[in-house]
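queue> holo job accepted (cobalt (II) ion)
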Amino acid sequence: MQIRTVATTPFPDQRPGTSGLRKKVAVFSQPHYLENFVQSIFDTLDLSGKALVLGGDGRHHNDVAIQAILRMAAANGVGRVLVGRGGLLSTPAASCIIRRRGLAGGFILSASHNPGGPGGDFGLKFNVENGGPAPEKVTEAFWRRSREITEYRTAEAPDLPLDRPGIQRLGGMEVEVIDPVADYAELMERLFDFDRIRALFADGFRMRFDAMHAVTGPYAAEILERRLGAPPGTVVRGTPLPDFGGGHPDPNLVHARGLVALMNGPDAPDLGAASDGDGDRNMILGRGCFVTPSDSLAVLAAEARLVPGYAGGLKGVARSMPTSTAVDRVAADLGIPCYETPTGWKFFGSLLDAGRVTLCGEESFGTGSDHVREKDGLWAVLFWLNLLAVRRAPVAEILEDHWRRYGRTYYTRHDYEALDPAAAAGLMDHLRQRLGELPGREVGGRRVRAADEFAYTDPVDHSRSTGQGIRIVFEDGARMVWRLSGTGTEGATLRLYLERHEPDPARQHDDPQAALADLVAAARALGEIEERTGRDRPSVIT
Ligand code: VG1
Ligand code: CO
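queue> job finished
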């Protein structure tokens, strides 16, 4: 194997965002673009002689990028790479494999819920030895390196066949193609009561799992249909496709429309669920009922003792700042700590590693636990299945019981996508300037209790992250949170998150948009959204 050093010049835009580096396929497929970023990672971390995992969600460019990374890994002295068959690995499965097999880390190729195909997005993320996304100080170091890079190393070698499990060599490096599902499925069997879930299906329980033609298809088919005995056809859109069948692999009320319609129709099964491009997100639906991700986290925390993997109780919980405070109430009731972190899974890693929290979640359809160091879509679905198998009650009843006990936190997120970046930054600046004068004032009929720009000091490693979104909290506990997306690839995306708590069971059955209409109107006026962005409504409401 011939090693080649290739001269290159830096690209100015390789700063990783909320979750890795995400760009349009056209950007990623420019000569040297992927290679520069990958070499920046090899230059930052010493991975020579180490073992890594490599795989992605199967989107367009996945195959080309995997071969390029393998050649570069060999040229940079990596000892061994485990690749998912066909180049496929879900994000939580990659995390699981790093941990179970004691690897030094791995590359995950995905732009998650962003659309794929030649005109879509591509992404690359590096996870470290705890199985989780590289922490901010590491991703910032990748970025610094990418701005000074002058050369990268690659190998002269043909593409390796990745369609069959087995061991091959690329120069001095060993490449092992592995079954992408096996390690993960075994871990799930240890956490959940598979016998009980099998009995639930045997008794006629029906579900539909929409894999959205993304990576979870093979995982869901193996676990739900083969190991748990769910009827064939439970998993739909189960074949991963490079363009996700032309869809937007984002499991929410807008992009999983067919599933939502089914669950609201006359022939709704007992449970509906979906996952995103790389398998780390989940959406949970009951018959005629949608469980918001924030509520899902709260319910899982409250019911965790019913599930074998969590029967010993929870050490603590964590949620990202914009996630609703529903789980805070459960934590208070259980007498366990509840941490509030910035958006993005990388901030949960140190809390999980230190054993301070067992469950964590985000409003953006992300839920997970200390079993891996990523959010985990199918895990959340199995957690719900285990609860349903124990309680034998409809999803809606479990949710309503929860609300009666803790109150309902009405919640919505309004996204304004593809905004002019200057207008979006101006809107945030304007809010920032007003933070000092807001406390004590009335906004839309509510008095502001506190207003700040969220900054976080990690309680374990004391690293500090600033500028993590604007928070306005009212005296009745209602909240308005504002931030700009760190995963988009087109213009800027403004995310506005709104919530209010409703303790009265007689008022817990409204449409969230109606229940939050006054907060929405107050936020639009306060942020001068229409004047500044020209938008009279959000692009996506979840
Ligand atoms: C979004 C979500 C955030 C999530 C991130 C990655 O980030 O809001 O909660 O962690 O996506 O999820 P942002 O910066 O666009 O708001 V995934 O499934 O795209 O890896
Ligand atoms: Co994802």
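queue> The mean pLDDT is 97.
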